[in-house]
Specification:
The protein contains ten helices and ten strands. The chain is α/β, with parallel strands linked by helices.
């Protein structure tokens, strides 16, 4: 396995400074965010460390030179918009840009792109699944034709205005099973983040036994259930009203068991730390500190 981090935490730094930090701190790789210029269309979205809007091989060669300079790899290109969005403009833009991200990856010598399936928050899960079966097969075919493996993150995007469907239906093993039956291609799999399962009171480790062969990339983000808050407001509020995202080692997940389950499943790919811990986001130095804490938690488990 390779230890890295998600570049979104450094949205205010240019790519070279992100890679310099990664190499200097002993990280193996970085998942590089590739949102289109123009800002976010959702929380934690909008970071653009590689602009693929009009990407050329010369641009790719410049990026590869930076990777060589700082002795770090790209684990995947990341773009997490909402292809099934209720907002037609957002959905259309998300699908079009995702194709550009997929096209850019081979120029960089990569074969992994990570994204969301998305959801229309005003439809049921079953209605969204039907929409998925119309929208995603052509996207996966586009990826497969270019030798790209498309990893779907399992964040449910459940907030007050999106409760209870959320903005991403790929949130549970039951839905993964249906998605993989509908699209059996090995170029379609998971970018597996255990924090989103813990947030839903689910076992973040057990699904690896069934879906290990479908895990193409992983995020290491911790989650802490606030038991006192849960006892006060109950489980029917949006999940992040009674849980807190933490850096690995400061939450509830047993990272030794998680890495052990991944290795048992034969997974040897990237483990990229994702920082959404509000205790460490106010300053650049705190964000760097959060990655060092997480690195010191994960590195002994990965080697």
């Amino acid at each position: 396995m390779q230890l890295g981090f998600v570049s979104a935490i450094f949205g205010d730094l240019p790519l070279e400074e992100v890679l310099a930090f990664a190499g200097g701190e002993g990280f193996d790789c970085v998942e590089v965010m590739c949102w289109p210029p123009g800002g976010p269309d959702r929380k934690y979205g909008g970071v653009c460390h590689i602009d693929v809007s009009n990407f050329t091989q010369a641009m790719a060669d410049d990026v590869r030179a930076l990777l060589d300079k700082h002795r770090v790899a790209i684990s995947a290109l990341g773009y997490y918009s909402i292809p099934l969005s209720a907002n037609e403009d957002q959905a259309t833009a998300a699908i079009a840009h995702l194709h550009k991200v997929i096209d850019a990856a081979p120029m960089l010598g990569l074969n992994n792109v990570n994204t969301f399936v998305g959801a229309n928050q005003y439809k049921t899960l079953d209605e969204n699944f039907e929409l998925f079966t119309q929208v995603f097969p052509p996207i996966v075919q586009h990826a497969e034709e270019r030798g790209i493996f498309l990893g779907i993150e399992n964040c449910p995007m459940l907030y007050a205005k999106t409760w209870p469907t959320g903005l991403n239906i790929a949130r549970s093993p039951s839905m993964w099973r249906r998605m993989f039956e509908a699209i059996p291609s090995k170029h379609f799999g998971l970018n597996y983040d255990p924090s989103h399962l813990r947030m839903q009171f689910m076992d973040p480790i057990a699904p690896i036994r069934e879906f290990g062969s479908r895990i193409l990339h992983t995020h290491a983000k911790d989650m802490r259930i606030d038991v006192e808050r849960l006892n006060d407001v109950g489980s029917l509020v949006p999940p992040m009203d009674r849980a807190t995202a933490k850096v690995p080692g400061l939450g509830d997940i047993d990272w030794g068991k998680w890495i052990g389950a991944l290795s048992d499943a034969g997974y040897q790919g990237p483990v990229c730390i994702e920082v959404e811990d509000e205790a460490f986001t106010e300053t650049l130095e705190l964000r760097k500190q959060s990655l060092r804490i997480a690195r010191n938690t994960m590195r002994p488990l990965i080697g």
